[in-house]
Amino acid sequence: MKPHFVEKDGITVAFFPDTLRFYEINKLTRNVMKDIIEGINKEHTMEQFSCDDKSYESLKKVIDENCNCGWGHNKKQNDKGVVNSGKEEVNILKKLVINITNVCNLACKYCYANGGNYCSEECMMSEDTIIKALDVFYGHYDNIENIQIFGGEPTLNPQGIEVIGKYVQEKFKDEEKEKTKLGMVSNGTVMDEKLLEIIKKYNIHVTVSLDGPESVNDKMRIFKNGKGTGRVVGDNIMRLRKFTGEPSCIESTYNRVHEEMGVKIKDIIKYGKEEFGIEHFHITPVSGNEDDEFILSNRDEFVKSVSDLMGENSGDIPINDLISTVINILKKKQVCKYLCEAGLVLLSVSVNGDVYPCFMLIDQQEYKMGNIYEDDLFLSKKYNEIKTKLINFSKFNDERCKNCFNNTICHGCIGSNYFETGNIHRQSEVNCEMHKRITEEVIVELVKKMRRSQQYTEVQ
Length: 460
What we know:
Strand content: 5-15%
Family: Belongs to the radical SAM superfamily. Anaerobic sulfatase-maturating enzyme family.
Protein name: Radical SAM core domain-containing protein
Number of domains: 2
Keywords: Iron, Iron-sulfur, Metal-binding, S-adenosyl-L-methionine
CATH class of the largest domain: Alpha Beta
Number of helices: 15
Shape: globular
CATH architecture of the largest domain: Alpha-Beta Barrel
Oligomer: single chain
Pfam families: Radical_SAM (PF04055), SPASM (PF13186)
Structural class: alpha/beta
Order of helices and strands: EEEHHHEHEHEHEHHEHHEHHEEEHHHE
Domain Radical SAM core: 90-313
Largest sheet: 9 strands, mixed
CATH topology of the largest domain: TIM Barrel
CATH superfamily of the largest domain: Aldolase class I
């Protein structure tokens, strides 16, 4: 793929999607590169831009080394969409999400899960079903890297949390392979002594949902009686921090209320860091239909947050996941052909044992892959039909994505896609544009940072 040129704040950058390399250039160099790419006569280009032969050939070499030579071209990909590293393929599940309850004690206005119960009757996952799920997935995979305890609100089923903790602890008691990491996503409203002990005993990493200070959080994240959750959650975070060192992450859903109240992404992060000492933040735009009252009018704040969090005057404020993901891909040069790996190396189990690619798709029957009580779950027609559909998607072949400069970096959520566009492989236009602009902003900020440390490459 040809390079993508980014221009901002007096900086011009040539970004090569195929190799994930980028170079700061001047405008004259950009013009010469464009001529080379378009096949303009060499002598004409050299004369028009006063470019000598050595400089021309040097630029041509840079282009030849970085174009049409990367992901989706001559690199062999495995069925997980990552370029093979030469290592033998391993049968490992990256994440298993266990929905131990579809009961929730809140009435968050933007909830995609119908108040936590998805489209089912409210119930708790039984101990037998939890153990069966763990038996099935540990029996099929060589290992599970992460188990995410989910809901509903998982802390309403403390027995279920403990069953998972005991199972994993016992399983890895005498095994040399790396122990499965346990995580839990909670609304933070229930945190009694028993729960604190369970979290500490089984080293469960906790993510708490909080949309910022009470003034904004309590507009959307409310109890069934309409009362705001902010103060209760804040107090529980402090107790959790004191007793266990958790939560390790705050998850926020950025919505119209933030926009209308002038609360920026950096404000949420500063609040979480200064108030609770949290360093990891997962802040995403709210999902929903265009006519939902909580939907953002645009995604400009996510784009602006890049300079707010990476700029020279940002201080030691932590970086949001949407930004750090782009940085990590640029650094590690590890690319996935999928927007999301759900259904391939990430799977979810509902309270009754139904298996779905993503927890957001629970009770969406077209994406039900099977049930843990089926003897041939992983061989069943439905399971493999859905898995094949997911495997066959590639950003490098999709008509909408294949020529996009961001296709080696772009990522997303098939669940959010489903609720926004009705197609798990189709991001909304506004989301797609946001990701492209974030990538451009990150590249420019990295160039600025390298300038400040005098560790950058400028092609002239």
